[in-house]
Structures are given as C-alpha cells and as structure tokens.
Amino acid sequence: MVDIFVEESVDLLDHSDGLLAQLRDKPTEREPLVGLQRDLHTIKGGARMAGIMAVGELGHAMESLLEAVVDQRSELGRDGIPLLERGFDRLHSMLTRVGNRRAIGLPEHLIAEFDARARNRAVPDAASFATPVRAPRVEHKAADAKPAELKPLSAPISDGGMHDEDDVSVRAPQEQVRIRADLLDRLVNYAGEVAIYRARLEQQLGAFRGAMVEMEQTNLRLRDQLRRLDSETEAQIIARYQREAETSNETFDPLELDRFSTLQQLSRGLAESAADLTSLQGSMDDLTRQYETLLLQQSRVSSELQEGLMRTRMVPFDALVPRLRRVLRQAATDTGKQVQLKLDGAQGELDRNVLERMTAPLEHMLRNAVAHGLESPEDRRKAGKPEEGVVRIAVRREGSEVVLEVGDDGAGLNRKAIHKRALERGLIRDDARLADSDLDMLIFEPGFSTADEVSRLAGRGVGMDVVASEVRQLGGALDIHSKLGEGTNFVLRLPQTLAVTQAVFVRIGEINFAVPIASVRGVGRVSRDELEKESGSYTYGGEEYALHDLGLLLGHAPAKAEGQLQMPLLLVRSGDLRAAVTIDQVVGNREIVVKPVGPQVASVPGIFGATIMGDGSVVVILDVAPLVRRHAALPRDTVPAPIVEARKVPLVMVVDDSVTMRKVTGRVLERNNLEVGTAKDGIDALERMVDRVPDLMLLDIEMPRMDGYELATQMKADPRLRDVPIIMITSRTGEKHRQRAFEIGVQRYLGKPYQEHELLRNVFELLEQEQAAADREPA
Description:
Layout: H1 2-25, H2 31-49, H3 53-70, H4 80-99, H5 108-118, H6 181-247, H7 261-313, E1 314-316, H8 321-335, E2 338-344, E3 349-351, H9 352-373, H10 377-382, E4 388-398, E5 401-408, H11 415-424, H12 436-440, H13 464-473, E6 477-483, E7 487-495, E8 500-508, E9 511-516, E10 520-527, H14 528-531, E11 537-540, E12 543-549, H15 550-553, E13 566-574, E14 577-582, E15 585-593, H16 598-602, E16 607-612, E17 618-622, H17 624-632, E18 651-655, H18 659-671, E19 675-679, H19 682-688, E20 696-699, H20 708-717, E21 726-730, H21 735-744, E22 748-751, H22 756-776
Parallel strand pairs: 2-4, 9-17, 12-14, 18-19, 18-20, 20-21, 21-22
Antiparallel strand pairs: 1-3, 4-5, 5-7, 6-7, 8-9, 8-15, 10-13, 11-12, 13-14, 16-17
Helix pairs in contact: 1-2, 1-4, 1-8, 2-3, 3-4, 3-5, 6-7, 8-9, 9-13
C-alpha cells in the first residue's frame, strides 16, 4: 500500500504543480484552488490509510487553508502562493523519503503557518515549537490487515493537468497501463528487427522478381529455338523422303514406317516441355505478385506497430516541468532571489531516453541561472528591472532536431571575470584575443567557475561541463547567446532519436551515408563553375544556402561527382541554418531503422546513429547540421591545410569461377589493406578492366567462356594491360601447365590450395617491384 500511495501521490503533486502555475498567473481564479483542494484531499486520505500520518497532517492543514479561501473565509494574500509552494515542495520531499524507506518528521511550524492563515491569525514564533519528533520508519502493514479502498482521482491527469473548465470530472478517465521502461525498449528493438528482416525479404523478393524476368526471356529463346528445330526437322524429313523416293520403289511411305519418328517425337516432346515451363513460370509469377501484396500489407502493419511503440516511448516535456519548478524554487530560496518560470512549447513530446538524460543537465542550468545569471532584488531594482527575475524554457522541433532554449533576464555573462579566471587556470595566454563567443564557451571547461566563494549552488565549477558533456554524448550541440545587462540564452540542439525514420541515401567516394529526410529541404544541382565563385551560396525557393562539401565536412576527400556535368547538392535546413552540401551521388530514399551506436561514436558531432540495410551492411546516419556548424565555427582567417592525397591503395583483381575462392582470397587481401576487385571469368575481367586497370591480378586457369591462358594472352597483347603483374593460382600443378604460363608472361605460379603467407609474400613482392618501376619512370 505504501508503494501504491507514493506512486499515486507523486502524480498528484505533479498535477498540483501545474495548478499552482495557473494560480500564480491568475490569483483570482477559483478553479485552480478547487483542483488543488481535490488533490490534497486524495493525498491526505491515502496517507492516513497507509499509516503515514505526517504527510496526512500537512495535507490536511493545506486543504483547510484552500477550503477557507474557496469559502471566502480567508484570503491568500501576497505571500499565500509562496506558502503553498513551500507546502507542496515539503510534501514532495517527504514522499521521496517515504519511497526510499526513510524516516520523516512532522513539520509542526509549517502546519502552524497554514492553520494560522486559515483562521486569519498571526503565525506563532518558530522558537515556541519543540524539536520535531522523528516519525518511525515506514513499514508495510500486516498481511491480514483489512485494506482500505483508495479513492479514485477526481480528474484525469494524463494531460498534465492542463484542462478547460468545461472538461472538469465530464470526460470519462481512460484506462492506463504501466509497463517497465526496459520492456518497452526491448519491444521497440524487436519491432526494429522485424523491419530490418522485412527489408531483407523485400530485397530478396526483388532479386527473385529479377530472376523471373530472366526466366521469361530464357523461355522465349527456348520456344524460338524449338520452333526453328521443328522446322529444320520437317525440312530434313521431306528432303530425305524426296531422295529415297527417287531411288526406291517401296510401297510404304517413310513416315508410315516410322523411320524418322524418333527425332520428330523428341522435338515435339521438347516443345511440350517448353510449354510446361511457360505455364510454371506463369504460376510462379502469380505467386510472386501475391507475395508482394502480402509483403506490402505486412509493411504497413509493421510501420503502424513501430509508430505506435514509438508513441508510447514519447513523453511530453510537461512531465518534467514540476520537478524543474521545484528546483527553481529551492534555488531561489537558497539565494534569497525572486524568480518565476515561463514555458513555451512544453506540450511538445520528446523521446523518453532523451528527456531522462537531459533532466540533470537542465537542473544544473536552472541552478546556474539563479546563482550566476539573476541579480538580487535590490540590484534589479537599481537596474530598472522587476524585482522578480524570469527564467524561460522553450521547446521546439527543427527538422531532425529537438531544440531546448534555457534563458534568463539577468545580468548576462561576466566576460571580464571569465577572462580573469581563464588566465588564472592557464586556459588562455596573456596576449590571446578571443571573440566573445569563444570566451563564453570557456564556462563549459571542467571545474570552471567565476564565483568568489563556494556555496550550495555555485563555486565548485561542477555543472556546465556536465551539461556540455551530456549534450555531446547525445550527439547534440550547445550554443550561448549573452548580452550584458539583458541576460543569457543557452540553445541545446538534440537529435530526435526515433527508431524509424525516412532517410535520403547519398554517396561520397565508395561510402554510402543516410541523412534523415526531416532535415532535407530538397536536392539540387550546381555547375562546377559556380562552385569556384567566391560567393559560395546557392539560391533555392528564394533562400540563400551556404555551399559546403560533405567530403570535407567528414574529413574525407572532396566530392568529385565523376562522370556528371553538374555537382549534385543536398539542401539541408535546421532552424536558421541553410546549407547546400555537395555530394557525389544521390542514391535514393527509403524508410530506415535507427540503431544506437554507443556513447563513444554518438559523441562525435554529426553522427545520428546507424542502420542495417537489406543485404546486412551497416550505413552511418548523418546529422549534417552539427557538421556545418562546427565547420562554420572555425576561425575565418585560418587557412585550411592542403589535403595531402594519400598513397593510392593497390587494386588486386581476383579472377576465378569459384565464388568461394573469390570470397576467401578477397578477405585475405582486404585484411592486409588492399583493395579487391573480382571477376568470374576472362570475359568478365576484360569488361571490368575497361574502367580501371588493376595493379595486380590473381588468375585461375579453368574458367567458362575464356580461360586463364586466353585472358593472359590478350592482356599481354594489349598495351594498356601488358604491364599488369599476374599470379596464376590453379590446381593444375604439372610442369607443362606451369611452362605455358611462364611463356605467356605470367610472373608467379601457385598451386591450390595455397598457403596464405606464401600468397601475400608474392603479392607484396610484385607490388613493390611495380611501384619501384613506376618511381623510375620520368614524369
């Protein structure tokens, strides 16, 4: 019963916190008072049934005050709402201790304040009260004790308590179920796995559909060949008949003697078999269409399941607001300052994991805003400001990001104090000239604080570095905007960690990346001459997009888009950011399942997550906005170091009709940092070498269409391919085969199965010889 009471009461206190905020904005409204009275009545009754009398007594005293105010027997006055806030904060701390099975004391002085206010009497002096008696440790009641029925909530609280007057105990409360968070996360993960398997099925069904098309073409060729065979058979029979008719006087016709019936029967039988294959192909085509329809239906259900599960993992930011209000009130009490919290967009939803991880950083920022940002009431009055300071929290979504803004109307950052403390700690040199933005970022250094003395809220340098670290681990970004005398605003940009999203696939070099489509404005093209202009912008939809190169943003080689007249652009928009990013190719778009990549990788700016493709390959999901912001934050007068092109990785082509041989040999070479290309026979190898000549070839002898001897002969006769070293690997280890290979011009001859170290020794020896020969050639 204690656990049930604590769980219900915490929800009621969160609901009451919202009503308190309404009461502060509109002190004359009656509805918030009635709502608070109902919540306290339920808490009081539950506390007494659970045997937690201290909570029940405080709740009764607070309810009595509210009842007197509602009945107009008393007034709240100027300090009435702060008194209620103190009471609810005390109830929350008491319930926290009860939930942790810790003892609580009876708040006699606070109860006396509420009683006196309810009776319009003076509050007795705190010294007249004895030392509070510690209540006994809370224990469960005996199993045979008769349980009392808890009263139901008088109003639904699933909406955070924000409801209209017409909605009060009219709407029927919807049934709710509580489940463990780890179970929900596992269900979301399983649903993601289902989506991945569905993608693999779609890819395999697509391959099967391609094979069906090939089968149809093969059947057409077979029918055509049978038709020609049938015509040829008839012609031969007629010709033979005419020749034999001239030299023979047989009474019977050759056909009547079945002299040529065997060949004719075979051709007729083949025609029937071809017809049967066509019929089977039609049946398989019908089944494939049915499977495609079923897979489409399964895809829709799977998407709805994913969306539903993700909706259950999304929680409104409102759920965190009561806790933040309590933190702000406690900080104001500790510092003797007056502050109110203003919210914008708090109804917006965030992923539960993001909200949980950002709870502690947000609390740090609120304490920091009160301790460092807001002035004392006297200083605010001298500066012409209201004595009560304001802390603002705004929540909004921009593209694939969730933006949290935490600001205050205080004095702003004291950049002189920041500069002085940075010099003392050796973070900057005496002659360093830093921009305001660079100076502001120093407050995120570990242990950095400008407070002169240590207090409960300031001076230890712990707080803002925790915020920055948590934001980086979530893959987000953190900016500061501060103006002296007007306040400071922190902007936190966090990824929207949905498990399923639509993404655009782009290619840089040989690597594919996925970009969430929520942040993509469109796709464009720009001429190479435009890229060389100093303006560095691209106009789309009446807006200017700054030009960037995705390859350079990733620390990769710049985009080249070889074979294309214009460079493809990915237009990215996030908040005020507009960026046109050059890429090599737009591959397409599709729905993907977002997989976490762990804190080590997620802390790298620009990595949103990863996804698994239908073929099992892993593709990194990029968040382009942080990459652009990081690049834009670099000093403009800094000349970027020239990109030194790395030494070309040698390409080794493996030509073998055995799939196993190609894969095993390819993996051996790739483990040793070599690029690998494969071909299944000689003709396939020649076709692949049209685009790029390999640095070395591993060649089998016995292959269809063109064997190894024939391929080596053609290569040695071609001026473009004659210098490619060839290592022949074959099961033919006889001297005759070996001699013929050397006569053609093959450099090395190895037998199957080869020893890995022996293969690698020969490969690297030939590559070194080739490199040495290239170095000796004149430029």
